[in-house]
Amino acid sequence: AAFEGFRLTRENPRVVLAWSIFHFVVSSIGAVVLIAFGGDAMTQLAEQPEAAPGEMTALLREMAPAYMILAPLGLATMSAIAAAVYRLQLRPQEGGFGHLRFGADEIRLVLLTLIYYVLAVIGLVGLILLAGVIAGVVAAVAPDAQAPAAWATLLFCGGLIIYALVRLSLAPVLTFQERRLVVFGSWSLTRGHFWRLLGAYVLAGLTIAVVTLLTTVIFAAVLGIISVTMGRGLEGVGAVFQPDFSSISAYVTVETFIYLVVTAVLNAIYYPVILSPQVVAYRAFRTPEPAPPYEGGAGI
């Protein structure tokens, strides 16, 4: 399950190319939105990383319109690419440009994400209240045990969050495949499979992290060579990770363009690697076990 995403990308290079183009276009649109609605504030924030709280608040307020556009754009993008990954594996007969589209399936995934955001906020508030109650009880009963109790509470709450995330992780696949909102159906489907699922997710995450790290190192080295060759020195490399959002002409450089291309390809690989274990698990847990052989008497 952990390596299914790599197999998927290796066997479908045209689809990966389509996803790369999609991510490149979305990233470019996002950059244009930032430049148009918060470019000056972004530039000032980069130039004054230690600005006073009042100035920081003013700059963040100035960038709010940009993020009000980017937030739904990001949500729609993640839902579209997730549906494309699921569609490639579960409904390959539904073609299209990289199996990308934005219809009922994607809207349901958007709604599911919003529902989980609300549930996550409620859950975090509950855990904070629980931690506060435990801290108050420990402080009153055994003041010397406050530090160990705090660590134990933190580990417990963290473990509870991970457990819930893993048990609910198949909800997007269920929602996509059953063409309806399935908020808690994953809980029963993953019963008894927590550790196997967690292992698959951790292994997939570590693998894509290594790939991303190696790609970033190679990319930075190549970018440094290009920047030095063009006479920009190593400033061109720094500008990639801290671009100038004051205008489109200031933002668009050779280094930035290469960065957008490399990031788009990485995203085209990242999402299948992270999402494919869910599809493998869904297929495994949904497949009915074969009926036992009949052991009746002869002649029946």
Topology readout:
Elements: H1 4-11, H2 13-47, H3 53-90, H4 104-141, H5 146-167, H6 171-178, H7 185-189, H8 194-229, H9 235-241, H10 248-251, H11 254-286
Helix pairs in contact: 1-11, 2-3, 2-11, 3-4, 3-6, 3-11, 4-5, 4-6, 8-11
Overview of the structural elements:
The chain has about 300 residues and is mainly α. The protein is globular. It is built from eleven helices and no strands. Helix content is about 80%, strand content about 0%.
Question: Which features characterize this protein?
Answer:
78% helix, globular, single chain, mainly alpha, 300 residues
Radius of gyration: 24 Å
Name the shape in a single word: globular
* Helical/strand content category: mainly alpha
Q: Give the SSE string.
A: HHHHHHHHHHH
The main sheet comes to: none
Strand content: under 5%
| Alpha plus pi helix count | 11
List the uncertain runs: none
Q: How much helix, percentage-wise, in residues? A: over 70%
Mean pLDDT: 86
Rounded to the nearest angstrom, the distance between the terminal CA atoms is: 43 Å
Tell me the number of strands.
0
